[in-house]
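Supplementary notes for students who missed Thursday's class. We covered one full example, reproduced here. Read the sequence, then the structure, then the short commentary at the end.
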Amino acid sequence: MPLPREILNELKWREDRNLSSTEIWYVHRGAANDTKIVSGGEILDLEHSFMILEDASIPYHRIFKIVYEGEVIFEREKRK
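Structure (token representation):
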């Protein structure tokens, strides 16, 4: 199974895909249900270990679901 970083990079660089059409679900302690969802359009950069947003750096291991145009393309059990 491809890892979140590989999936996001593919969505970013493939001409027939659009990263902005992506929802990224990740563990965010303190948020409702310890979950936060961001749009791919909010991603400023994809570094080696982190996805960079304007106000945060999210480690890839916290991502538990990626949805592209309404279809789940990556899912693993949410870590507690």
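Commentary. The chain has a mean pLDDT of 93. Strands lie at 22-27, 35-39, 45-46, 50-52, 57-59, 63-68, 71-75. If anything here is unclear, bring it to office hours.
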